[in-house]
């Protein structure tokens, strides 16, 4: 019998809406600048260039409900923490070199997520030509709502995506505005990585990203998918 030499870490999971079941998280992939207006506000071109991806660790997941805002801890080492509301696609069937026409067959369901970003640290890394991990991959950097299966809600290709901070609308867009659709993003991602059940793909954020402070209440959602709410502590 083999045993671990230290305590095995707990499995990161996201709840399934309306069920006691959970979705076990293997990896979290993120696509950058997938809405033209956000690409412009970040100083990039809104062209349909090949998408680029980055990762967050599985245990960065911070499961949240849609009703009462749950506390979420403000991270260390930053004075410029930003919100980015996103549609999250949950992979249920793995594969490599998936064709676009079959990509949605690999998606089990969807949720609402926040790609929380230590923007000052990200900017420092960009200026130095270094990777973004300290800006994107910190503890609790991926608050995510309960997932809803595609068998119930289908595969959303259009619909409002939004985020309010303290009741004021900050981000507003439509899934139809994505430069790369979910199917295209999954297919492209599978060219670089062998996708597997348990992977999550955060599909990009619309314009309007900005700073949040301790005490702020964030509430956002994706039409037909769900909502997410948290209080920054």
Automatic annotation (TrEMBL):
It holds the Pfam family FAA_hydrolase. Signal peptide: none annotated. Coiled coil: none annotated. Residues 28-232 form the Fumarylacetoacetase-like C-terminal domain. One of its GO terms (molecular function) is metal ion binding. Keywords: Hydrolase, Metal-binding. InterPro entries: Fumarylacetoacetase-like_C, Fumarylacetoacetase_C_sf. This is Fumarylacetoacetate hydrolase family protein. It comes from Nitrogeniibacter mangrovi.
């Amino acid at each position: 019998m083999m045993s671990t030499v230290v305590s095995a870490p707990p499995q990161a999971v996201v709840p399934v809406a309306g069920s006691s079941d959970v979705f076990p998280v293997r990896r979290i992939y993120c696509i950058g600048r997938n809405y033209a207006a956000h690409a412009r506000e970040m100083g990039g071109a809104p062209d349909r260039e090949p998408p680029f991806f980055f990762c967050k660790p599985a245990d960065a997941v911070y499961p949240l409900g849609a009703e009462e805002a749950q506390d979420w801890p403000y991270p260390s080492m930053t004075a410029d923490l930003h919100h980015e509301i996103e549609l999250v696609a949950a992979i249920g069937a793995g594969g490599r070199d998936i064709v676009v026409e079959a990509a949605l067959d690999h998606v089990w369901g969807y949720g609402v997520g926040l790609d929380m970003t230590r923007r000052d640290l990200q900017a420092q890394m960009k200026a130095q030509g270094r990777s973004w991990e300290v800006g994107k991959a910190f503890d609790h950097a991926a608050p995510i709502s309960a997932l809803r299966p595609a068998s119930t809600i289908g595969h959303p290709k259009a619909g409002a995506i939004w985020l309010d901070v303290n009741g004021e609308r900050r981000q507003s867009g439509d899934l139809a505005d994505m430069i790369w659709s979910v199917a295209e993003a999954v297919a492209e991602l599978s060219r670089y990585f062998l996708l597997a059940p348990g992977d999550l793909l955060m599909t990009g954020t619309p314009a309007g990203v900005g700073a949040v402070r301790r005490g702020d209440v964030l509430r956002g959602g994706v039409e037909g998918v769900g909502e997410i709410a948290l209080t920054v502590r």
